[in-house]
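Fill in residues.
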């Protein structure tokens, strides 16, 4: 018996999937009990490509793939909401399992595909949509069997973490670091998605739907990118013991999902401080188990292929609702958060109740507030980690 696959897209991810299936055929056969064969590949511009094997149909017409009678699984490694969602709907209606790496599409249209898949008794795999090679979806599904997840915090975009690391470590300009991320296959076709936080927001949204059964309302999401962070700021804060990281947070509070994607400053004893280059990391807080952290490559050809192959292995698993949204006393507690107030004007805008803890450089203060800061301004940057370790300096003025 053979599991026949149609691959939509033959770029970084599509090629990674094809090569992985070829190179690990023996292992896959042992796991699945069947041979795995890519029978067709869809691309947009056929002139750019050659079929990797004579037996593989290479086409730019989806209808050709839809008409094939022997396809069991369709893997989506193309870009954007349409035509991907229509292709996958058609595939499901034909009784095919689908696997997607396409976060933009899945963040928007997951409900349509999952409902349709239930009706046609097929599965929808989406491990590759979040955090590249980190098996976060499977981990959460296992965790959610017993736990209520109270908060998820993490670096979910490999490209922006790579850029921030290269700007700090190698003094690369923003543009050169981005160009390198594109060359390495980490960035999205439109890298605005990476650097402006859309990609991390799509991923947070997918996690939110799995954990809380609902997506954050886009108009309530604070989404800020990294494009305005200057190399001089990175160096300045690095010398004070703080690293810029682009962090996504999701939690359930006051009966709705709260989501933010923004640059923060991380102190050296915080786990995210060491998460560098294209690495992603996810910290999960859950009520029974406590805290769990996962770290691994967040983008690239083989890490993403690994996530897609995992979905192949879990193909016949049922999709069910994992959500526990009852609020606990813990959800109601307001915690203190630490911020850098950067520049004299920031100090003048401090909200009532804010406490100035110390001055760590000229015109740079650590302040503490209850809960989140309502002022969304670049002169306030949240700090993660132990701020008592930051050195106090004498006031200069
Ligand atoms: N790169 C990464 O690290 C990761 C990417 N992803 C997601 O995986 C997907 C693919 O990413 P990636 O491989 O990097 O992208 P690439 O740009 O490298 O490749 C995209 C492929 O899809 C094909 N394609 C795009 N649009 C269409 C269309 N409308 N019809 C047919 N074919 C189309 C392109 O064809 P052609 O070559 O002819 O232009 C190309 O082969 C994206 O949704 C991305 O968000 C997810 C996790 C990680
Ligand atoms: N562009 C994305 C690719 C993986 O999801 C990223 O950089 O994280």
């Amino acid at each position: 018996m053979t599991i026949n696959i149609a691959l939509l897209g033959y770029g970084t991810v599509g090629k990674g999937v094809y090569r992985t299936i070829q190179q690990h055929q023996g292992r896959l056969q042992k796991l699945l009990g069947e041979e795995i064969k890519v029978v067709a590949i869809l691309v947009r511009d056929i002139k750019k490509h050659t079929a990797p094997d004579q037996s593989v149909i290479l086409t730019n017409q989806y209808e050709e793939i839809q008409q094939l009678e022997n396809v069991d699984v369709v893997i989506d490694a193309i870009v954007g909401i349409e035509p991907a969602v229509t292709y996958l709907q058609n595939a499901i209606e034909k009784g095919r399992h689908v696997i997607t790496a396409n976060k933009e599409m899945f963040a928007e249209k997951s409900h349509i595909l999952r409902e349709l898949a239930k009706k046609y008794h097929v599965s929808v795999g989406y491990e590759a949509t979040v955090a590249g090679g980190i098996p976060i979806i499977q981990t959460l599904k296992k965790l959610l069997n017993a736990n209520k997840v109270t908060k998820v915090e993490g670096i979910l975009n490999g490209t922006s973490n790579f850029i921030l690391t290269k700007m700090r470590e190698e003094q690369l300009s923003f543009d050169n670091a981005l160009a390198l991320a594109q060359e390495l296959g980490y960035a999205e076709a439109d890298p605005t998605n990476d650097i402006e936080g859309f990609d991390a927001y799509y991923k947070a949204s997918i996690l939110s739907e799995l954990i809380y059964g609902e997506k954050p309302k886009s108009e309530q999401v604070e989404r800020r990118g990294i494009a305005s962070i200057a190399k001089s700021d990175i160096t300045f804060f690095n010398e004070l013991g703080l690293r810029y990281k682009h962090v996504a947070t999701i939690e359930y509070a006051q009966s709705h999902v709260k989501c933010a994607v923004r640059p923060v400053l991380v102190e050296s004893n915080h786990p995210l401080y060491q998460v560098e280059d294209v690495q992603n990391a996810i910290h999960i807080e859950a009520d029974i188990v406590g805290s769990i952290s996962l770290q691994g490559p967040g983008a690239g050809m083989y890490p993403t292929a690994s996530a897609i192959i995992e979905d192949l292995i879990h193909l016949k698993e049922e999709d069910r609702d994992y959500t526990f949204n009852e609020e606990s006393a813990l959800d109601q507690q307001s915690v203190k958060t630490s911020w850098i107030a950067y520049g004299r004007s920031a100090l003048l805008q401090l909200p009532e109740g804010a406490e100035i803890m110390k001055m760590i450089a000229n015109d740079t203060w650590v302040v503490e507030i209850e809960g989140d800061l309502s002022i969304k301004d670049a002169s306030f940057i949240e700090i993660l980690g132990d701020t008592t370790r930051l050195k106090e300096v004498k006031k200069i003025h």
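The first helix runs from residue 12 to 23.
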